């Protein structure tokens, strides 16, 4: 019975970690992409608007920023997560080698892990033996490294999530600055960006189980600061080149 309980506990822990790792992977990429899409595109457009850019100039700048940003985010996420995946594979290879060279020592390590988790000595040993017999690499990887060998980070998932989120985020300021009359461009863009960043901050906090107020505040303040800086730069550029 104790052995069965230990196996079930190990399986549940591994599944929970795998689900959490997968969710955090795409959530991080999506939130980063959406925020960057909103802020960077809004910054570009307000800068061009500050320099008295025409609707054609705004459209060209916005579309160029959207495409370049989406590709940059996708490439960056792919490289970053691929590096993480390579690191995880190297750690698993090392663990696999240690299991082959010193199985008893590795069993003692796993026993110490469960003993440190609060199990008594006999039960900790029993659980370690049962999990080792079932899947030695998986048991050690999850307990010592926090890695599920069957659920390594996916670079394509992160890249696509980041690019798609960036595109959706970039469409908010792009449409906001192109659709209204010229006199309404700036206030509509600012209001749209604040609304988008508020929603993004709230959604990321809810999905990640964190407090929403701080996430929303830092999103909105960062976006407003970026727009203020680029708009001021555009106004100064227009003034000195007029």
Description:
The radius of gyration is 25 Å and the shape is elongated. Residues 1-15 have low confidence and may be disordered. It is 88% helix and 0% strand. By secondary structure, the chain is mostly helical. It has one domain (2-241).
Question: What is the β-strand count?
Answer: 0
First and last CA, distance: 83 Å
Helical stretch count? 7
| Major sheet attributes | none
Order of helices and strands: HHHHHHH
Specify the overall morphology: elongated
Structural class: mainly alpha
Mean pLDDT: 79
Number of domains: 1
Low-confidence stretches: 1-15
Radius of gyration: 25 Å
Binned, the helix content reads: over 70%
Strand content: under 5%
List keywords for this structure.
mainly alpha; 242 residues; disordered N terminus; single chain; 88% helix
Q: What topology does this entry show?
A:
Elements: H1 2-50, H2 55-101, H3 103-116, H4 121-145, H5 155-178, H6 185-208, H7 212-241
Short overview:
This protein is an all-alpha fold and 242 residues long.
């Amino acid at each position: 019975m104790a052995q069965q309980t230990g196996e079930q506990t190990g399986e549940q822990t591994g599944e929970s970690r795998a689900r959490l790792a997968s969710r955090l992977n795409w959530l991080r990429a999506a939130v980063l992409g959406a925020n960057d899409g909103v802020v960077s595109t809004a910054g570009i457009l307000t800068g061009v608007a500050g320099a008295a850019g025409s609707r054609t100039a705004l459209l060209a700048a916005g579309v160029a920023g959207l495409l370049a940003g989406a590709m940059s985010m996708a490439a960056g996420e792919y490289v970053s997560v691929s590096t993480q995946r390579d690191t995880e594979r190297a750690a698993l290879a090392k663990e696999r080698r240690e299991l082959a060279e010193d199985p008893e020592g590795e069993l003692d390590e796993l026993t110490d892990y469960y003993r440190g988790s609060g199990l008594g000595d006999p039960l900790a040993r029993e659980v370690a033996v049962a999990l080792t017999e079932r899947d030695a690499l998986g048991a050690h990887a999850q307990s010592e490294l926090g890695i599920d060998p069957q659920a390594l980070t996916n670079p394509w998932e992160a890249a696509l999530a980041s690019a798609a989120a960036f595109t959706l985020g970039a469409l908010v300021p792009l449409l906001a600055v192109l659709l209204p009359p010229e006199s309404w461009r700036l206030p509509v863009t600012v209001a749209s960006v604040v609304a988008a960043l508020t929603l993004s901050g709230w959604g990321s906090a809810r999905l990640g189980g964190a407090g929403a107020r701080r996430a929303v505040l830092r999103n909105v303040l960062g976006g407003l600061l970026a727009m203020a800086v680029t708009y001021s730069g555009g106004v100064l550029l227009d003034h000195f080149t007029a």
